[in-house]
Amino acid sequence: MNIIMYIVGFILFVAYCCFMAWSIHYGNRKQEETNNYANLSDPTDMDGMGNFSRFPKDIEERKK
Known about the structure:
The protein is mainly alpha-helical.
């Protein structure tokens, strides 16, 4: 009886791992198809902090 319980548990574990790997693969592939991250990046944002870290070039604009 003990060995049957381990065999059934192992089969369930393997099935769970297979479905989890398939789900991760399918989700990753679907995300690559639907999202285009190249359009989201700002080429002038070198530090990744957004616009608040940029300072105006003119001194007059800084005083405002």
